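Predict both folds.
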Amino acid sequence: MYLSTDQFATSFPVASSPSFTMTTIHEQGSGSCNEDVLLSEGNLCGVFDGATSLEKSYARNGISGGFQAASIAAETFRHHVGPLAQAAEVANYRIRTAQGHDRIPSDQRLRLWSTSLAAIRLHGSSFEYCHTGDCMIMLLHHDGSHSLLSPELDIDSETLTLWQQSPDSGQPIHSQLAEQIAKVRLQMNVSYGVLNGEPEAMSFLRHGHHSLAGVADILLFTDGLMLPKADPTGVTDWQSFADMYCRGGLSAIRNHVRTVQQRDPVCRCYPRFKMHDDIAAIAITVDGGASPECKLPQSC
């Protein structure tokens, strides 16, 4: 089941695992379509962030290549009963096949669609996870600490720094820095991973199992929920991110992100590619209760 809860968050118990509660946000940004896909199916959930080719290749059905890639991946995960890493491999193959049907040569890399992903499957006392690209998995622990199962990737910091420092030419970032953006895109499955049909994508896949002992909440989210940074080369303030979640859940983070972005309409103070990015986010609360530290005003 896909959850498309544009502009709203929803909370509901997981039917197969009554000790888990999920809250979701799925919202289109300022682009022409939402290329993020959110998946929730029993004890399986995931977020998928599609990216259309730089040549804006559309599938034959008229939808964007990024949405096509994200949808193929989400649908593959939804139906796959084996390990999540295996689902990712199958999804990658299906993306390649779909691009072939649309006559997109695999060696024309700037024409390839792609998707990042973060997915988990919950079990009784543990969960399986799978991740690639710039989607994130954060754990909030009962002792008030937090940890990341996915690394924060430094994909676009050079591009965004150039954008921030360059004089205003009146051109949008995709025109003004077209060569730089293409250079970064060609690093797919070279310095960072995405599912785009290339076999090399599997080398960047992160997957495994993690105990639920001490885990209060699990957050999965696309980069649209990331806190805006005035310095593109800086590290995200994950403590502030966790504190916002403690105070008001995913909606508190979303509202902060959108407010900061709204105050910077030219996308230069907090450099980015467009006013608002798409958001797909899932929060899983374990055993019906958030971290005790989240409930203490002095810690949040």
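Second protein follows, with its predicted structure tokens after the sequence.
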Amino acid sequence: MNLLSTYLKNEVATLHKENVKLTAIGDINNLPNQCVKELNKAIELTKNNTGCNLNLALNYGGRLDIKNALVDIIKDVKVGKINLDEIDENTISNHLSTKSIPDPDLVIRTSGEERLSNFLLWEVAYAEFYFTNVHWPDFDEKELQKAIFTYQNRDRRFGGIK
């Protein structure tokens, strides 16, 4: 986690200058104190930026996120804030930690791994996946262009049958 603290210290000014908004999902409060401090500082500095969004998933698990959303929904039902009959997919989506982030269109998985690994389980329902044997540190612009080209040539049906 020292790498995260170092990165944030060195790059947050550039992110802010480039109008990038930094957000984080996951249980960040269980990270080392210095990481939490630097992360919160960076999030606060960039919170009003309107350019790109940089979303960091730190100490994040999709199952836990869904469980937490369901617990929050149950609490809302108990206090009468939500009627049980009104719960739908949007209700769940709006209670996830990713509620302010659009669902991904493309998930790129590096290092030859072909699994979700508990990542954004709800949100990737209609995403396209790109798998590459290239390891993350070597994933460069050329590899990104290959992923985007592959994505552009997909027939996205969002669950529909053709």
